[in-house]
Amino acid sequence: AAAAAAAAAAQRVHAKSCLPAFVSHAASSPFLLPPGPVPPALMTPTQARRHIASARTPAAARATVPMAADTLEDPPATAAPFGNPSFARMLSMPAIPQALVSADRHEHILPLVTTEYDALKDLRLVSPETVAALLNGAYDDKYSRVIIVDCRFPYEFHGGHIRGALNLWTMEKTLGTFFAQPIVDLDAAARVCIIFHCEFSSARGPAQYRYLKEIDQTIMLQHSRIFPETYVMAGGYCAFFKEHSHLCVPNTYQIMKDSNFRRELGQNQTILDCSKNEAQQNKWKLDGIVLRLIDAVQAEGRMGLRHFRAAPPSPPPTMHAAASPFTPRHGQRLPGNND
Q: What is the C-alpha separation between 167 and 272, in angstroms, rounded?
């Protein structure tokens, strides 16, 4: 008994010694957000149901739903790939000039909205109304293409998403879609509008936005960004579905914390945490396509991007419905307007 008590006391001392390091990391990490008023990630099941029920309340009778963290992450690992021969080059990459960072906040086409959350003030936020106008063709004279990036987990996406959205929920998917196997010609991407969002656009969506922006600015450095028209939709799918559910397919809203998808939530959160850990270790700087893009831009400026053309689209792979890990199991249902 005495030995067990001593071991428990040692664990408590170790936990206390680790706390300042975690708090310091949480204050500096771009992927961790301080809890806002009534964070959905910390809501009880009853509070979550009331939060979602506001989507069916008339607009004139409800207050604006605050943006808050829709996921909680653990601090990332600190290991670095010192054995990689490209690691020295990664360390030698110059920092992004502050002038470019500041200019990026002011040069935009879409009207922006503000937020009370300090952790989100570095984002270009657009309203759900602006996104609906984009889908309805109001900005066709400004953009050659509009890409909606849904950063929610696959079971959320299949339970209802904005028409034509792409489900890019890990950092690797974003890197591959826009750089490794680009879906647009990189030399003509300046006329492409990209909108990121998740359930509330407070954690997953902003993290993907910052990730794409950092890669873009690292590649271009002294030049204008490859994707200058990049935004985050304020309020996320929750806010969009309230007013524009007719633009969602299917016309439903699958919440993240659904007891029917507890297993999928745990699996997807683990995968996302690993993806974010690698992103925070800057492993993307060791990716061959990123190094090729940097070399092309250094040699030819923005004209070097013309060598990176979009590959022709391939037909999606077929998968039997019963074998899909994101198909509701027997007895599960997706919540709709009458739930």
A: 13
Intra-chain end-to-end CA distance of the chain, in Å: 53
Q: What is the pLDDT of residues 162-203, one digit of tens each?
A: 999 999 999 999 999 999 889 999 988 999 999 999 999 999
% of residues, the chain, pLDDT over 90? 48
Q: Are 241 and 160 in contact (CB under 8 A)?
A: yes
**Left if phi > 0, otherwise alpha if psi is -120 to 50, otherwise beta: which for 8?**
alpha
Is the separation of the CB atoms in 167 and 161 below 8 Å? yes
Candidate list 18, 151, 193, 198, residue with the active-site label? 198
**What distance in Å separates the CA atoms of residue 51 and residue 47, rounded to the nearest whole number?**
6
Structure tokens at 246: 């007719």
Cα separation, 4 vs 186, whole angstroms: 61
Counting every residue, how long is the chain? 339
User: Which pair of structure tokens corresponds to residue 227?
Assistant: 């994707």
CA angle 273, 274, 280 (to 5 degrees): 85
**Mean pLDDT of the residues in the chain:** 75
Long-range contacts, stretch 296-301, CB < 8 angstroms, 24+ apart:
297/219, 297/220, 297/221, 297/223, 301/223
At 230, give phi and psi (nearest 5°).
-125, 135
Q: Is 249 helix (H, G, I), strand (E, B) or coil?
A: strand
This prediction has a pTM of 0.66
Residue with tokens 């086409």: 109
Concatenated DSSP letters of 119-163: GGTTS-EE-HHHHHHHHTTTTTTT-SEEEEEE-S-HHHHHT-EET
**198 catalytic residue (yes or no):** yes
